[in-house]
Design a protein that fits this description.
- This protein is of the alpha/beta class.
- It has helices spanning 39-47, 66-80, 109-119, 137-147, 177-189, 216-237; strands at residues 5-7, 17-18, 53-58, 84-88, 123-127, 163-169, 193-194, 199-201, 208-209, 212-213.
Length: 243
Amino acid sequence: MKTTVRDCESAAPRTGVRGRGFPGPGFVLTEADGGRQDDAAAELKRSFDPGAAILAFAGSSRRGTFNGRLIESAVLAGRTLGARMSILDLRDLDLPIYDPGVRPDDAPEGAMTLRRIIAGHDGFLIASPEYNGSLPPILKNALDWCSRAAPGEQSAAPFRGKVAAIMSASPVLEGGACCLDHLRLVLSRMGVLVLPDELCLSNAAEAFAGDTLADPDVRHVLNKSVATLLGTLRMCRSGACAE
């Protein structure tokens, strides 16, 4: 199956959102106010590094999921800020169950394709559903294949030194919080700087109006998360972040 990385250059009832209190810059970039930017948003937008490439993907094994729609909304927020955004569908990859006994030279083509895609991006937006309080198999399996060291490389080399913002949408009140704790741990072990703020969208069945987030406050939190990722990437690419 052909793997598609989609370039994104072109163009209700209240839900619960949990964060870890990251104090990032304030933004107002919502449909409710016509995309108005406050002064802080405009200043940070001018400071973004246009060379940074962001890869967005959901840990979902079905189409039309809440987390897939959340990623689409996050990509729209990034495009609004002028970021280079791409979307990867993990289902397009031919990834068997991870086998540590496979020699690096004999890794499946899907794993090699995923490593090349990850290596070609500076930051990540990851939305994951929660399966039994943890990561879904399709996401954990993809991360495991990327953690395998290729000849002459460190383990998890494609991810190492990159930056990620994580989020989850769930129909339950916890909003996927347990899953994000596990995702944060796995990514951190792989050398990724995971932003301390995270979006846990509860009551996801009521959160969307079509493919759009219905609540302007939730859109504000999502926009702020994306903007913080972009600002952090700029600092890291300028040498201000240490692995």
